[in-house]
Each structure stands twice: as structure tokens, then as C-alpha cells.
Design goal:
It catalyses: a quinol + 2 Fe(III)-[cytochrome c](out) = a quinone + 2 Fe(II)-[cytochrome c](out) + 2 H(+)(out). Pfam families: Rieske, UCR_TM. This protein is an alpha+beta fold. The chain has 5 helices and 12 strands. The radius of gyration is 62 Å and the shape is elongated. The N and C termini lie far apart (164 Å).
Length: 273
């Protein structure tokens, strides 16, 4: 016989039921047994968020204990023990004292520094001078070449009124023993009428001796001595005439014959070069 449970709490849920199942004997669910080993549930993944990191930080004071004594561990943030370099070893005694007036010794200290710089500069200049001298000397001509750069002329072998030709540095060298008439004639010339104005006194150290390089200033030919319209030198290449002082008087040559450097070592010895 069917039995209905008379319960006001259940009546509301059973009003729409068309069929009511009575009590059934026996187990509705099959029996089962739990496993002997416990079930392991995996941990949740760790979320590295600012909140999780801050929650895991240590809070409050830290304590350290060793040997049964517990004390507070302090963290030093003020670095007052930083060591700074001391340059007192390199400073002068006059400026080591912070209470002294350094202006009183300023001039002395400057003069000392200037004197040391000047001494060092002189030493450097002397060393540079020796170095440059050796370098330039190595680039110069050898002793045998310098010996050929000079020529010695015996003036006693040249008669008056004659011209002798020598070879000097690969060029012809004219040495003329002039007469008194030639000297007076050349010194009486008005230099304002010359193409290359030059006085005879400026071309001859001694009036009776004339020293010239025998190369025409036009195109480099060798003039002939003792000929020409002016009794001096004549260039047969293009017709340039020079007087007895080597000055251009006629023809295409623009300049006078060159006078080389020379000196008289004795009354009868001439050194050219």
C-alpha cells in the first residue's frame, strides 16, 4: 500500500507530480570503497604579482640569534665611512694649512713654477737643436763634394788685360785682369742708361780683378771674352754684348753676368765659392 509523506514542506514540490514512487527495498547506488593511497590534488600555480611578492616579504624587525643571545639585525643605509683620496703629499706646505692666507705666497709659487717651465723649455730646445742639426747635416753634401764647391785661383798667373776661364761647379768661370783704362771707362758709364743698372764698384771688390760666371743670362750660352761692341764679352748665340764689367749693353739678354761669391785669402790668391 502506497504511503504519502505528509509534510507541508514537500507538498509544494509534489503538486505537479503525476506518479509517486513508493519506498523500494535495497540499495539504489552500488557500493564502492575508497583507495588506500590518498588522492593528491595539484597545487595552484604561483602568481608573481606585486601583491603576492609584497605579501611574502619580511615584515617587522629582524632578529639574529647566535650562542643563545638574540639581537636586532640593523641595515646601514648612510655610508659615512667612505674614504676620499688625500693629495697632501703632492701639495706645497704653504697651502696645506686651511687657515693660512695663500695669497701671501701666490707670487712665490708662480715664480717657482715659471722658472721650472723655463728651465725645462731650454733643455727641450737644446735637445731639439742637436737633433735637427744632425738631421740637416745628414742631408747635406759630403766633404769631397764641398771641396769641389770651391776653387782656388792664383792671380799671379793672369797677365794684365787678359781673361782666363776656369771650371767651377760645372760652369765656366771668368777671371779678368783689367787695365786702368778699362777701369776708368766702366766707372764713367751712366748707370741710368743701362738695362740692368749696377755700378762697377758693386761688381768688383778690387778694381783690377773682375770675377764672373760665364753663362749668358738670355738662354745659357757661353759668351766669348774680349770681343763685342763694348770690349767685354759677346754671346754668339743671339748677339748679346757685355762691357768689361759684365753688364748687358746690347742684345736680348735681360740681366748682367752673374758675380759669384768669392774672397781674397792673399794678395795673389782668390777663392771662389
Amino acid at each position: 500500500m502506497y504511503k504519502l509523506v505528509k509534510n507541508t514542506n514537500i507538498n509544494n514540490f509534489c503538486k505537479v507530480s503525476k506518479q509517486v514512487i513508493g519506498s523500494v527495498g535495497g540499495d539504489v547506488v552500488d557500493p564502492f570503497s575508497l583507495p588506500e593511497k590518498p588522492i593528491q590534488v595539484p597545487d595552484l600555480p604561483l602568481k608573481l604579482t606585486p601583491y603576492s611578492l609584497s605579501s611574502g616579504a619580511l615584515k617587522g624587525q629582524l632578529f639574529a640569534q647566535a650562542g643563545g643571545i638574540r639581537g636586532v639585525a640593523q641595515v646601514r643605509h648612510a655610508h659615512t665611512d667612505v674614504q676620499y683620496p688625500d693629495f697632501d703629499y703632492y701639495r706645497r706646505k704653504e697651502v696645506k694649512d686651511p687657515t693660512s692666507n695663500t695669497r701671501a705666497t701666490e707670487e712665490y709659487r708662480k715664480v717657482t713654477g715659471y722658472m721650472m717651465m723655463a728651465a725645462g723649455g731650454l733643455g727641450a730646445a737644446y735637445a731639439a737643436k742637436n737633433t735637427v742639426t744632425k738631421f740637416v747635416a745628414s742631408m747635406g753634401a759630403a766633404a769631397d763634394v764641398l771641396a769641389l764647391a770651391k776653387i782656388e785661383v792664383n792671380l799671379g798667373e793672369i797677365p794684365e788685360g787678359k781673361n782666363m776661364t776656369f771650371k767651377w761647379r760645372g760652369k765656366p768661370l771668368f777671371v779678368r785682369h783689367r787695365t786702368q783704362d778699362e777701369i776708368q771707362k766702366e766707372r764713367a758709364v751712366n748707370i741710368s742708361n743701362l738695362r740692368d743698372p749696377q755700378a762697377d764698384e758693386d761688381r768688383a771688390q778690387k778694381p783690377e780683378w773682375l770675377v764672373l760666371i760665364g753663362v749668358c743670362t738670355h738662354l745659357g750660352c757661353v759668351p766669348l771674352p774680349g770681343v763685342g761692341d763694348y770690349g767685354g764679352y759677346f754671346c754668339p748665340c743671339h748677339g748679346s754684348h757685355y762691357d768689361a764689367s759684365g753688364r748687358i749693353r746690347k742684345g736680348p739678354a735681360p740681366l748682367n753676368l752673374e758675380v759669384p761669391p768669392y774672397e781674397y785669402t792673399t794678395d795673389t790668391t782668390l777663392v771662389v765659392g
